[in-house]
Specification:
The protein has one domain: HUPs (Rossmann fold), CATH 3.40.50.620. The protein is about 40% helix and about 20% strand. The chain has a 5-stranded parallel sheet, with helices on both faces. The protein is of the alpha/beta class. Adenosine-5'-diphosphate binds next to helix 1 and strand 4.
């Protein structure tokens, strides 16, 4: 049984993230979506809200479990028998940062490998920050986020 985790801030989850979750869930026996709760990024949505939004959006996928975690990701992996970390790569700009984190994690916990999935082309431009910016100007985000997330964003930017 190979368990993986897809970690991130997910503030909020976008269709780009959902695409990675769906594809990664087909590659592993069990996929955790790990929502980082001690982010220094001053998130728009609370940790509970972010977890709930993802649960609502991917509730139909049997082998996916949405969890929150704080502290070091590799410690969470070790404590839960997780041997793979999934990250999404959009453009070359993601690469430097992702490589550094993956290599650091590998040094800290050699039993855990990082697996990169490239973004589907239609989501290559998509990020949580862009979605928040568009929503803040009441732009159309129908194609960017699941419908439950759209409702939550609209409520934030009335
Ligand atoms: P973090 O704060 O850890 O970067 P994010 O929530 O922004 O967390 O993203 C989590 C992961 O999802 C990262 O690996 C990121 O590169 C990836 N990701 C974000 N948006 C997309 C997208 N549109 N397509 C593919 N992967 C994405």
């Amino acid at each position: 049984m190979v368990k993986a985790i897809y970690p991130g801030s997910f503030d909020p989850v976008t269709n780009g993230h959902i695409d990675i979750i769906r594809r990664a869930s087909g590659l592993f026996d069990k996929l955790y979506v790990g929502v980082l709760s001690n982010s220094s990024k001053n998130p728009l949505f609370s940790i509970d809200n972010r977890v709930t939004m993802i649960k609502e959006a991917v509730g139909d996928i049997a082998n996916v479990e949405v969890v929150s975690y704080d502290g070091l990701l590799v410690d969470y992996c070790k404590n839960n028998g997780i041997t793979a970390i999934v990250r999404g790569l959009r453009a070359i700009t993601d690469f430097d940062y992702e490589l550094q984190i993956a290599q650091t994690n590998k040094v800290m916990e050699p039993e855990v490998d990082t697996v990169f999935l490239t973004t589907s082309l239609e989501y290559a431009y998509l990020s949580s920050s862009i979605v928040k910016e568009i929503a803040s100007y009441h732009g159309n985000i129908d194609k960017l986020v699941p419908s439950n997330v759209k409702c939550e964003l609209e409520a934030k930017y009335i």
